[in-house]
Input
Amino acid sequence: MMPPLLCALCQYYKMPSLNFVLPHWLYWSGLLFFPLIAAFLARKQDERKQSVVGTSLPIAYMLWITGGFVGLHRFYLRKVWIALVYLPLFVMILVSNHSSKEIRVEVSDTKNNQLTAKFDIEEAEKALANKVEGAQEKLDQARASLERFIAQTADATERFDRWELASSVFGVLILLLLIVDAFLLPRMHRSCIAWEKETGFKIKVVENPRVDVIEDPTHDLHSRYTDWIDTISDFAGQFVCYWSLLAVFVYYYEVIARYVFNSPTNWAHEGMFLMFGMQYLISGAYALREDSHVRVDVVYLYFSDRMKAWVDVITSVFFFIFSITLMLTGIVFAIDSVSVLEVSFTEWAIQYWPVKLTIGIGGLLLTLQGGAKAFKDILILKNLKEA
Output
């Protein structure tokens, strides 16, 4: 058996559980405001036009918060040797949690076996009272099984507590290191800056030129009747592209909560699943504007601009059948969903009606962009005829 002191440590120093559930209002406001803030910051960064930068203290603190448990902040500030202390501690937390999960299943199984043995004892006692032949033998076997399962449960529980204690000890050590580093970060940053100045080391930010293979002859064609549609599609596409950054943060939280704190969430997967569905719908018009939709272009690639315009005008009939159907069907779905304020059937119970609204919105944007493209195809045909 575990000594009393060790039992006390297991009771008071267990790894905490993360019981945070993302509020619905925070989810929807995040989808609305995060892209706006991210776009503003990206524009400010572009205005600065920094091509050469050094290490940053805010970035160091960000790494301390998000990846400090593996020493990312020290790697960033080039304090590599001390940073290596974090890695084995974190690995031991993962090993301890994995082992405790396996033993937790064993504890559950032995407790269920106890219930089964108790039931067998009750049945054997009834049979013995009714003087059924062989009842005493079954009763003795059931009692022996119960004693064996009780001993197995006690042994598994003791091993589970030991692994929980080990996980807690490693977690406390990492926490203490992080607290110390929180005060040491400014000094480490100054030391790193001094080293950069001494060695002339700089982090160069290289902007890779964008290489697009645009086959659509209408891509660079402008018209006062269609430019406003292109602007709307461009805004919608860039707006939802920042949602992908949200997924990075959410899944990062999910992995840490699941594998470090043994506290998987009930909202991360569902929230991102719905977000990507809405992103797919709203960005369809932007993808059409940028000629990014998948199509069979083995022959189309070699057509002249005039022939491409003819093919696009003819095949646009099938496109509008799809986009208008999507728009009208989405509107019907949205009206039905809004009328009952539909929510999901999961434990999180997130609102479904905003998701249904994006079906109609995406269909409308796609139809408008398709109309703009068809109009510009006609302009190409008209200009070529006049030429």
About this structure: The radius of gyration is 32 Å. The CA atoms of residues 70 and 86 lie 5 Å apart. The chain has a mean pLDDT of 85.
